[in-house]
Amino acid sequence: RKTMSLSFSDRISDLLCDEDSDILSGGDSLECSLDLDFIDHDVEESIAGFIEHESKYVPGFDYLSRFRSHSLDASAREESVTWILKVQAYYGFQPLTAYLSVNYFDRFLYSHRLPQTNGWPVQLLSVACLSLAAKMEEPLVPSLLDLQVEGAKFIFEPRTIRRMELLVLRVLDWRLRSVTPFSFIGFFAYKIDPAGTFVEFLLSRSTEMILSNIQASTEASFLEFWPSCTAAAAILCAAAEIPNLSLVNPENAESWCDGLSKEKIMGCYRLMQENVITNRRKKAPKVLPQLRVMTRAMLRSSDSSSSSSSSASYKRRKLNNCLWVDDDKGHFD
User: Fold this and answer.
1) Distance CA 173, CA 278 (A)
2) Distance CA 48, CA 66 (A)
3) pLDDT tens for each residue of 82-110
4) Which intervals hold domain Cyclin C-terminal (predicted)?
5) Rounded alpha-carbon distances, angstroms, from residue 133 to 8, 47, 250
6) Which of 127, 157, 224, 312 has the lowest tally of Cβ within 10 angstroms?
7) 62-75 mean pLDDT
8) Cross-strand bridge partners of residue 141
9) Pick from 271, 231, 263: which is nearest to 54 by CA?
10) What is the pLDDT of residue 32?
11) Within 13 Å of residue 230, how many CA atoms lie on the same side as its CB?
12) How far, in Å, CA of 104 to CA of 77, rounded?
């Protein structure tokens, strides 16, 4: 199922008219990358620019409250994010690709009404957002059919996904090059470790935390924090795991760059530490005898389960004719 197709610049022609294709070239949009050019003497000014514009690439301030009031389905979002992370791991996509997928998903869900807040419309949105993010960041992108792996409940025709992609692009006003925590973590890592001794670990560990947090956002209120704040908190949590850096004072992070808020960073930092502790408890290793019993049980049941799993695959709905049409008010028909 790992058939690869062309990159975003080649495949976007399927979606756009010629007169619209220059929109993706950037214009005044911001370039984001995991790699920062530290030779550039204007890097601090660039980071300050990211902070100044990051509010344009996040959902509105009341997005989290919609989940708490149940006008949006938190469980449907969690299921979608979990699926996106599984596909990211399956194909070895960059962490930035997964983050952008969720970013597009949240920004769309905040700005546009779906015909229902769970079920196939939400999964179609998930597939479209992941497809767009992969086309933005990955050199090789699976076909739209091959992208629908890792337990996808519904299988959509490529033309249906393309129509959804166009709708996402319109709702996001073509702002796909979002400001993300990955725009900041390299810069913040060198603020904590100027010699660069532990930078590789800081980047790797903070990336793990960022991806973990997007999955727990509606529970732990991570949606309240903007990318720069999330990046600072992740770097601080990673530094706390290194003895040589464990004494770094989180309250000093505000001085790393103009525009950072000590209160926001500290709030996100505390939540992130709690999330790390929770994840460690969930991943506590099982004792060896239990593992052996479980393995034998699974082997004994494999024959009986294989037939049921194969029959279940035929029950996945193939939505050939779910064409999404907008009315004049931007709602779905």
Assistant:
1) 37
2) 30
3) 999 999 999 999 999 999 999 999 999 99
4) 179-302
5) 9, 22, 32
6) 312
7) 86
8) 5
9) 231
10) 42
11) 25
12) 12
